[in-house]
């Protein structure tokens, strides 16, 4: 089965559409799996939710999804993120709220555990070091864990000898060896690794290969929408820089 992995769409419709078009051009996928933060920051929460609900075979909730439906206090968000969250909460309709409220925080799909943050703290924890990754490898029993949240494409490997390694996400990776992996496919709608292109991945579960893709999109359209909506201007400027 071919599964497309998307994370941190953050209400960026142009980036999400570009990723889905790129996916189709590469032969499509049997399922789309979403690693959370569908909404927050961007100007098109409802359209992104509609598109995701048409396509997603599996999805988990992120901290921004919870904040937008009042399940999480935004007191610890920075002021601009909190303002964007408030804007999103007002934009969502009843069916959007019901969908987000129904998303699990952890989901098992065969050999894969899906969470937004980490198995230890599914909505909150950032996995950005081998120390944090190692602690989390002990907390899920599938071979693979798929995550989002940091907006950075990264790969953590626990090899057969018990060594924990961190890798930049390669363009292509064979998953057939005896290692276990925590995989972050990067962010669709707000990349933060210095590359403004949308990030996603495709896993072929039969062939056990992972392919990571970057997709250029017209972020100027998204930036204009952000400013027109009265969202914080920094939400627009960061899209051209990828941070
Ligand atoms: Zn996010």
Q: Layout of SSEs?
A:
Blueprint: E1 2-6, H1 13-25, E2 31-34, H2 45-55, E3 56-59, H3 63-68, H4 79-91, H5 94-101, E4 106-109, E5 112-115, H6 130-137, E6 144-147, E7 154-158, E8 164-168, E9 172-174, E10 180-184, E11 198-204, E12 209-215, H7 219-228, H8 233-241
Helix pairs in contact: 7-8
**Total DSSP helices:** 8
Strand arrangement across the biggest beta sheet = 3-2-1-11-12-9
Mean pLDDT: 95
Task: Report low-confidence residues grouped into runs of 5 or more.
Answer: none
Oligomer: single chain
The major β-sheet equals:
6 strands, mixed
- Secondary structure: helix percent: 25-40%
Order of H and E elements: EHEHEHHHEEHEEEEEEEHH
Note the overall shape.
globular
Distance between the termini: 33 Å
Tell me the structural class: alpha/beta
Radius of gyration, in angstroms, nearest whole number: 17 Å
Task: Give the ligands present.
Answer: zinc ion
Question: In percent terms, what proportion of residues is strand?
Answer: 15-25%
Q: How many strand elements?
A: 12
């Amino acid at each position: 089965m071919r599964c497309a992995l998307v994370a941190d769409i953050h209400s960026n419709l142009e980036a999400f559409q570009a990723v889905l078009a790129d996916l189709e051009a590469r032969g499509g996928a049997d399922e789309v799996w979403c690693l959370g933060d569908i909404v927050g920051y961007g100007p098109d929460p409802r359209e992104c939710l509609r598109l995701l609900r048409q396509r997603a075979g599996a999805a988990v909730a992120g901290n921004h999804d919870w904040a937008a439906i009042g399940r999480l206090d935004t007191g610890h968000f920075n002021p601009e993120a909190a303002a964007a969250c408030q804007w999103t909460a007002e934009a969502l309709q009843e069916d959007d709220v019901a969908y987000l409220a129904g998303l699990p925080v952890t989901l098992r799909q065969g050999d894969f555990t899906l969470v937004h943050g980490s198995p230890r703290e599914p909505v909150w924890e950032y996995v950005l070091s081998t120390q944090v990754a190692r602690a989390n490898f002990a907390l899920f029993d599938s071979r693979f864990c798929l995550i989002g949240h940091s907006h950075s494409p990264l790969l953590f490997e626990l090899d057969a000898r018990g060594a924990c390694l961190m890798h930049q996400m390669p363009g292509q990776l064979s998953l057939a060896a005896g290692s276990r992996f925590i995989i972050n496919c990067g962010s669709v709608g707000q990349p933060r690794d210095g590359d403004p292109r949308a990030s996603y991945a495709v896993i072929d579960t039969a062939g056990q290969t992972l392919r990571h893709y970057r997709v250029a999109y017209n972020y100027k359209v998204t930036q204009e929408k952000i400013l027109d909506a009265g969202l914080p201007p920094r939400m627009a400027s960061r899209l051209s820089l990828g941070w």
